[in-house]
Amino acid sequence: MASSEVFEWHPARYLQTSEPVDDFALLVLNQPLKNGINLRKLWKNSSVRVAADGGANRLYELSSFQGKFSNLQAIIGDLDSLTPTVRDFYSSQPQPAQVIHDRDQESSDFGKAIKWIRDSYKMDIIALGGIGGRVDQGISQLHHLYLFQSGAGYDEGRIFLLSGSSLTFLLKAGQHHIHVREEGEADVFAKAVGIIPLREPSRITTKGLEWDVTDWLSQIGGKLSTSNYILPTTRCIEIETTKDVLFTVSLRNVDNEDDG
């Protein structure tokens, strides 16, 4: 059943220079990382920083010569990817990271890290490296958005997947206001968006897109709203959906981004 509540979203705040309104946890997955502006903003703005197993190796490759990404709170997973050098590095910091060996064979390192964050803190989670690499891993990451947000709302916090080109999150059945531009801040997002009913068909209504729809049946194998565009004048996209759907929005290219 769709919620009567209107869910408000301000995803741009996580990637802007001003302090975000709410605390959030940054979860680094075992995917290639670039020492770019978005990573540095997320690292600065996040309240908790966690690596899922080999995600710590990815950070270490950047930290070893810059020293920017050394203050992890935890490394968690089955630890089959974590190297001894990286483990020693993060364990020997002034505020050492907890290294947690979770032997559960029926859950992924991503899932183990989400559960640990949820058990320790009550805040939103941004997973960095989401939907990258192998197709099966990408599908698994999308699966986790549904798995760990199974209720009618977001009582345990919201989960975002951030890749190098897009931000993706789950819209529960109901009404959503997604603020894609914030007053006094530079634009974070580009114009392309998609609304994907991954689990089951949904009827969607939108306002603020170039190709808005009303009570439009969308389903895998049928009609999908992909490669739609945010209008230049739109500050808030309004979406109503009868079932849970994925929302994805492209990131704005940052000129002269520093790799080092």
Q: What is the helix/strand order? A: EEHEHEHEHEHEEEEEEEEE
Give the terminus-to-terminus CA distance: 48 Å
Q: Strand content of the residues, in percent?
A: 25-35%
Number of beta strands = 15
Number of helices: 5
Low-confidence stretches: none
Q: Helix/strand-derived class?
A: alpha/beta
Main sheet overview: 10 strands, mixed
Helix content: 10-25%
What is the CA-based Rg, rounded? Answer: 18 Å
Spatially, the strands of the biggest sheet line up as: 5-4-3-2-6-7-8-15-10-13
Question: What is the approximate shape?
Answer: globular
Mean pLDDT, nearest integer? 90
Describe the structure.
With 260 residues, this protein is an alpha/beta fold. It is built from 5 helices and 15 strands. The protein has helices at 37-45, 55-66, 84-91, 109-120, 135-147; strands at residues 6-9, 24-28, 48-52, 74-77, 98-101, 124-128, 159-162, 166-171, 174-179, 189-196, 202-207, 216-218, 225-229, 236-241, 245-251. The strands form 2 sheets. It has a 10-stranded mixed beta sheet, with helices on both faces. It has a 5-stranded mixed beta sheet with strand order 1-9-14-11-12, with no helix packed on it. Strand 11 and strand 12 form a beta hairpin. The radius of gyration is 18 Å and the shape is globular. The N and C termini lie far apart (48 Å). The model has no long low-confidence stretch (mean pLDDT 90).
